[in-house]
Amino acid sequence: MLKLARILVVVVCCILICVLGTIYSFIRFKNPSNVSVVARWFGRLSPLFGLQVEHRFPKNTANIGRAIYIGNHQNNYDMVTISYMVLPRTVSVGKKSLIWIPFFGILYWVTGNVFLDRENRSKAHSTMSQLAERINKDDLSIWMFPEGTRSRGRGLLPFKTGAFYAAIAAGVPVVPVVCSTTHNKIDLNRWDNGKVICEMMEPIDTSGYSKENVRDLAVYCHDLMEKRIAELDEEIRQAQQDKESQHA
């Protein structure tokens, strides 16, 4: 019963956010800060899932400037966890098929996000080049999920290199954003689904990399994020154990 009630409430809230977000974004057509505004609206839905989400930003967040943000892509719950971490003047890159999702597709387009045609490699490569140009021309940052798909409990999947090519070409840092594991930890029939930690890590300088060793940059970022996710999972596990021992 609780699961059904949650689903109904969440669906209604998501449709409202999509409709209001679309109207808001049409008024400020493709303003690069639209994405962060709407992303935070979705992020505020986390209590409906019984989640307590902690968002951690570095002290120098305001000084990061233009960057490529990369996040781990786990499942549909990303919409109410890691999406809250999107900063102003940041747009995301998503697959072309998103446009066909009812309500959300038009919202994704009108907020100013970038569609990527993954079926066409030459077009995808061209999109990365265009992104690099836009970053500096329009004073933008880009949010990407370099795994390319949801991991669904398979751990942090290998990274595709598109985001890193764009960062090197634009001469901007890569900023990893990680979210603790949510796979198989959320039961919609349970009131309390525990804590989730989303953390923005320190920027990674890309000036020492080129197109020739872009794979090295991707592997370095992957290993850094994988290690931090494990640390966040352990922090949550330890805190839960301490909490249970106090009530024992």
UniProtKB/TrEMBL annotation:
Q: Which GO terms describe its molecular function?
A: 1-acylglycerol-3-phosphate O-acyltransferase activity
Q: Does the keyword Acyltransferase apply?
A: yes
Q: Name one Pfam family in it.
A: Acyltransferase
Q: Pathway, according to UniProt? A: Phospholipid metabolism; CDP-diacylglycerol biosynthesis; CDP-diacylglycerol from sn-glycerol 3-phosphate: step 2/3; Lipid metabolism
Protein keywords = Acyltransferase, Lipid biosynthesis, Lipid metabolism, Membrane, Phospholipid biosynthesis, Phospholipid metabolism, Transferase, Transmembrane, Transmembrane helix
Residue stretches making up the Phospholipid/glycerol acyltransferase domain: 67-182
List, alphabetically, the InterPro entries matched: AGP_acyltrans (IPR004552), Plipid/glycerol_acylTrfase (IPR002123)
Q: Where are the transmembrane segments?
A: 7-27, 97-116
Membrane in keyword set: yes
Q: What EC number(s) has UniProt assigned to this enzyme?
A: 2.3.1.51
Q: Which domain of life is it from?
A: Bacteria
| Catalytic activity entry | a 1-acyl-sn-glycero-3-phosphate + an acyl-CoA = a 1,2-diacyl-sn-glycero-3-phosphate + CoA
Q: Choose any GO biological process term that the UniProt entry carries and state it.
A: phosphatidic acid biosynthetic process
Q: What class of enzyme is it?
A: transferase
Q: Name one GO cellular component term.
A: plasma membrane
> Which family is this protein grouped under?
Belongs to the 1-acyl-sn-glycerol-3-phosphate acyltransferase family.
Recorded domain comment: The HXXXXD motif is essential for acyltransferase activity and may constitute the binding site for the phosphate moiety of the glycerol-3-phosphate.
Question: What name goes with this protein?
Answer: 1-acyl-sn-glycerol-3-phosphate acyltransferase
